[in-house]
Amino acid sequence: MTAQGNLTAQASNIREVDVLPWLSTDIVTLLLLAVLVLSVFRGAYLGTKRTAAGLGSMVGRLLMRVLGILAALLLAGWASPYARDWADRTVLDMPAGELPAWREAGYALLGFVSDFSLLRVALLFVLIYPVCVTGLSLLGRWRTTVEEPPRKKGKRRQSGPFLDRIGGAALGLVAGAWRGALLLALLFVFASLLPASPVTRYAEASPAYRYAAQKVFEPAAGEWISGKLPVLTASAAEELDGILRQRYDVIDRNIPSDIGQAAIDIAGTGADLQKAERLYDWVGSRIQYDYDKVGDYENKGIWREQTPRSTYDTRRGVCIDYARLYAMMARSVGLQVRVVTGLGSDGRGGYGSHAWNEVYIPGEQRWIELDPTWASGGDWFDRENFADTHIKQSVL
């Protein structure tokens, strides 16, 4: 190869090393440049007058959205206590007996609205925000109609096509800068909420984003970002965890009459510990493990959700179905019971996802652990070494 060919190859390698990493990491800057260029071309195509009208309309729509958000947040905060009281009364008045699936889901949602304040405010905001925006839009149209002065007819000076295109391109540049600033602001909020996400890593790789964040957004947001936003994020995460823990609480609280009567007959009379063990024996011996359901989930990604009603009727289920049916039957005889999820030993040194139950025994002032799924393979009722094979992660 000639010396000139070597130099050309080296230059090509340098360009690949220098340019490609920049292209692969600084996506935000490329996106901002694309927004600016497209906005300039669009402005030149539309001309000065139409671009100016579009820019004014864009700013007006943004202002309306901001005012709508503020008004909806204030109204949602004001209405939150009233919504909580209404949800409490509705859940307490839930009719006895088996309900259709859509009504069970509705009562479950009301239970979440009652228990979780951030979720309640978010749902109210979603309902109120469209009303606020519509009201502001109608108010803006009414004021425009009332206050718009009559236009005087007269001759207008027409600028040349070239100057019109130049003016439109200049206004398009302003519109592009405005759109770019909104994009950076959205990225800043997203990065503040989810600092470990891939989107945040791409954003922080951009010099444009870092400059805007350090020089504009952080000084403007100030203490709200460093103080309140992490608190809100932690509160939202805590509420989400609570929602997941209470996923079945309201739905399974509604006990069908035949299942309740069967539980009373099985548990019989006596101390709470004896009732809990009789129910454990019955669920563990009558329900068969559904290997087909597990196979569908592991091989096809299909999860068949089922209620305690279907577990009782079909006599088949997996660990969460055993635990939910046991909890429903235990509640029907007055036991304080909960569903536990975590990891269970596979007998080969490993662990897999599992679910079991805990029952509170008032006379002994303690929670006992029991695993109805494993009852067919041994005695897992209040076993001393229960924790050696079960790792608790959350309580439903």
TrEMBL record:
TM spans (from-to): 20-41, 62-80, 118-142, 162-191
Keyword flag Membrane: yes
Domain Transglutaminase-like: from-to ranges: 311-374
Keywords: Membrane, Transmembrane, Transmembrane helix
Protein name: Transglutaminase domain-containing protein
UniProt source species: Saccharibacillus brassicae
